[in-house]
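Tokens for chain A. Residues wanted.
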């Protein structure tokens, strides 16, 4: 069991009311981080499901491993014209 810090942006940060949070994970994977956030802040689940997760500055796959000191960011979908 460990903890990771996650940066939140745009709509995800607005819904959460914070720009960064710490979550506990059993396994250091992107999927586990996503699950831990949904448990801690269930109101984020719909937006989180459509958001990308970046680890150390690049988009990550769900099964990607990470370290406790990895820079993790939730990137919500963007729209524009």
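Reply:
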């Amino acid at each position: 069991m460990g903890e990771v810090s996650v940066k939140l942006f745009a709509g995800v940060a607005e819904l959460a009311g914070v720009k960064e949070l710490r979550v506990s994970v059993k396994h250091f994977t992107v999927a586990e981080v996503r699950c831990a956030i949904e448990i801690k802040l269930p109101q984020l689940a719909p937006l989180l499901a459509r958001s990308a997760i970046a680890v150390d500055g690049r988009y990550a796959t769900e099964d990607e491993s990470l370290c406790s000191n990895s820079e993790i960011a939730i990137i919500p979908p963007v729209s524009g014209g």
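The chain has one domain: 2-75. The chain has a mean pLDDT of 93.
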